[in-house]
Write a structure and sequence with these properties.
With 515 residues, the protein is mostly helical. Helices cover 81% and strands 0% of the residues. It has 2 domains: 27-218, MFS general substrate transporter like domains (Growth Hormone, Chain: A, Up-down Bundle), CATH 1.20.1250; 312-505, Growth Hormone, Chain: A (Up-down Bundle), CATH 1.20.1250.
C-alpha cells in the first residue's frame, strides 16, 4: 500500500488549464462532506482537548496517591498538553507523506495506549512516559489533521467551521470533567484511566472520516478563493505579500523533484512492460518493486514540501508577521492552561469547595468557551469585519482577565472572571484562519504545526512554573501576574510587526512612485 496524491491532500498539478475554464463551485467545499469533517474535528476536540482541560481532576488524585510536590505532579498534565502541540512540525511531515487520515488513525491508537498504560503507574515518573509522552504524541497525531482538514474543506465559512469544530474543547472540558469525577469516585482513578483509554479508540473512527480532497477539488478551491473579493479584502495582504515576494514556497524544488520522480516511475513502468512475458514470480517481484518505488516517490514529495516550508529559500520564517505570531504563541497558551490545572486547588484554598461542587469554575469556562468560539467565528466571517482585529481584541480581553483573577476571592467574582476567560479564549477558533491568511492553504499544515508547537512549549512550562511559584510563596497570585505580563509581551509583538511592515510597504511604494 502507498499514499496517493489524493490521500496526501496536496496539489501537484498545473493550474493553468483550470484557469481557462469557468469554475463551478464544488459541492464538498463549504458543504456536503465538509460538514462531516467538522463533525469529525468536533469529536476529536472533545476526546483530546476536552480531556486535557479536565486533567485538574486527575491531578488532585495523583497528588494524594504519590505524595509529590505540586510542581512535579503538574509536569504530568503539562507534558501531555505540551507534547500534543510541540510535535506539530513533525506531524506536518507525517501528513505530507501519509495524509491526514492515516496519521489520525495511528494517533488514535497511540493515545488510547497511553491512557491504558497509565492505569498501571507506580509513580509520577512512570506517568511522564506513558501519559505525558505516549498519549501526548498520539493526541498530536490526531489534533493537527483535524484542524488542517477543516481548513481544506472550507473557503467562505472558515471561521464559522473552525469555531463549530473547536467548540468540542468546551463541550469536552464540561463532559470529561463530570465523567472523570464520576469514574474516579465510583471506580478509582486507575480504572477511570483504563475506561478513558477505551473511549479514546473512537479517535480512529474520527480519523477514518477524514476523506482527503482530490487534486482537482483542491485546484477548484484555490481558483474560487482567488476570484473571491471578500476573501481578498479580509486577507492579511501585508503578510502574504512577504511570502509572494520570495515566490511560491518551494515551487522550483518541487518541479525538479516531480520530474525526477516521474523518471523513476517511468523506468519502472518500462521494466514492467518488458517483463510481461516472464514468469509469475518475476512479475510479483516487479509489482513489489513498483509499489516500493511509488511509496518512495510519495515520501520524497512529502519530505520536499515539508523541508522547503521550514528551511527553503522562501521558508515560512521569511514572513515577519508569521514570526511575530510564533513569538505570541510562545507566551499565550500557558495563560489559558494554568487556570484549568490549578483552579481546583485555588477553590480549595479559598474554602469555596461547596459552591464549586455545585457548578465547577472549570465548567463555567468550558461552557462559555463554546459560545465564544461560535460567536467570534460568526463575527469574523462578516464582510465588514477583520478577522485579525477580532483576534487581537479577544487577546486583550483574555490577558486582562488573567491579571484580574487573583484579585477575586469570592465564588461570584471568580465565576464572572472565568466566564470572560471562556468567552475571550474563543479566539482559538480563529488561529487556523489567521494562519491560513498568512501562508495559504497549501502550507497550512506546516505553518499551523509551528504555531501549535510554540503553544505546546507554553503549555509545557506554564503549569509547573505556577506550581513552583506556589511552593515558594504558598500563593498562586504571582503565577497569574507573571503569566499575564508575558502574554502581554506576545500581544505587543503582534501589534508592532504588522505596523512596521505596513510602514515599509508605504515607503517602498513612495520610492517607486518618485522613480
Amino acid at each position: 500500500m502507498y499514499a496517493s496524491r489524493e490521500d496526501i491532500g496536496y496539489d501537484f498539478g498545473d493550474d493553468s488549464k483550470v484557469g481557462s475554464k469557468p469554475i463551478k463551485p464544488n459541492p464538498n467545499i463549504d458543504g456536503g462532506w465538509a460538514w462531516m469533517i467538522v463533525l469529525s474535528s468536533f469529536l476529536v476536540h472533545i476526546l483530546i482537548m476536552g480531556s486535557q482541560m479536565a486533567l485538574g481532576v486527575l491531578n488532585m488524585e495523583w497528588l494524594e496517591e504519590f505524595n509529590q510536590s505540586r510542581g512535579l505532579t503538574a509536569w504530568v498534565s503539562s507534558l501531555s498538553m505540551g507534547i500534543t502541540l510541540i510535535v506539530g512540525p513533525f506531524i506536518g511531515l507525517f501528513i505530507s507523506m501519509c495524509g491526514c487520515r492515516t496519521t489520525a488513525i495511528i494517533g488514535g491508537i497511540l493515545n488510547a495506549l497511553g491512557w491504558i498504560l497509565s492505569a498501571y503507574a507506580s509513580n509520577v515518573h512512570y506517568l511522564f512516559l506513558t501519559f505525558g509522552v505516549t498519549a501526548g504524541i498520539g493526541s498530536g497525531m490526531v489534533y493537527l489533521p483535524a484542524v488542517v482538514m477543516v481548513g481544506q474543506y472550507f473557503q467562505n465559512r472558515r471561521a464559522l467551521a473552525q469555531g463549530l469544530s473547536t467548540t468540542g474543547t468546551g463541550f469536552g472540558a464540561f463532559l470529561m470533567t463530570a465523567l472523570l469525577k464520576y469514574l474516579c469516585t465510583e471506580f478509582g482513578w486507575r480504572n477511570a484511566m483504563f475506561i478513558q483509554g477505551a473511549i479514546s479508540l473512537n479517535l480512529c473512527v474520527c480519523g477514518a472520516l477524514m476523506r482527503p480532497l482530490s487534486p482537482k477539488e483542491l485546484r477548484e478551491k484555490y481558483m474560487v478563493g482567488n476570484d473571491s473579493e471578500e476573501n481578498r479584502a479580509k486577507a492579511l495582504s501585508h503578510s502574504t505579500d512577504t511570502i509572494k515576494s520570495n515566490g511560491v514556497l518551494g515551487e522550483e524544488p518541487e518541479k525538479k523533484e516531480e520530474a525526477a520522480n516521474e523518471e523513476v516511475l517511468g523506468s519502472v513502468q518500462h521494466i514492467e512492460t518488458g517483463g510481461k512475458s516472464g514468469s509469475g514470480r518475476s512479475m510479483y517481484g516487479l509489482r513489489l518493486f513498483k509499489t516500493v518505488s511509488q511509496l518512495t516517490v510519495t515520501v520524497r514529495k512529502g519530505f520536499a514540501l515539508w523541508y522547503s516550508s521550514y528551511f527553503g529559500a522562501a521558508s515560512l520564517f521569511t514572513n515577519r508577521v508569521f514570526v511575530a505570531f510564533i513569538i505570541w504563541a510562545l507566551f499565550a497558551y500557558s495563560s489559558f492552561v494554568i487556570p484549568f490545572i490549578h483552579l481546583p486547588e485555588i477553590v480549595k484554598q479559598y474554602k469555596l469547595s461547596r459552591q464549586d461542587n455545585v457548578f465547577p469554575l472549570t465548567s463555567i469556562i468550558a461552557i462559555v468557551h463554546i459560545f465564544g468560539k461560535v460567536i467570534l467565528g460568526i463575527i469574523s466571517d462578516l464582510p465588514c469585519i477583520s478577522t485579525w482585529n477580532v483576534f487581537l481584541m479577544a487577546n486583550f480581553t483574555l490577558v486582562t482577565c488573567i491579571l484580574t483573577l487573583p484579585l477575586m476571592q469570592t465564588y461570584i467574582g471568580l465565576a464572572v472572571v472565568c466566564a470572560l476567560i471562556g468567552f475571550s479564549s474563543g479566539y482559538f477558533s480563529l488561529m487556523p484562519v489567521v494562519t491560513e491568511d498568512l501562508v495559504g492553504t497549501k502550507h497550512l499544515a506546516n505553518a499551523y504545526g509551528i504555531i501549535i508547537c510554540a503553544n505546546g512549549i507554553s503549555a509545557l512550562f506554564g503549569p509547573p512554573f505556577a506550581g513552583w511559584i506556589y511552593d515558594i510563596t504558598q500563593k498562586y497570585d504571582f503565577s497569574f501576574y507573571i503569566a499575564g505580563l508575558l502574554y502581554m509581551v506576545g500581544i505587543i509583538f503582534l501589534l508592532i510587526q504588522p505596523c512596521i511592515q505596513k510602514k515599509q510597504s508605504r515607503d517602498k511604494s513612495t520610492e517607486e512612485a518618485q522613480v
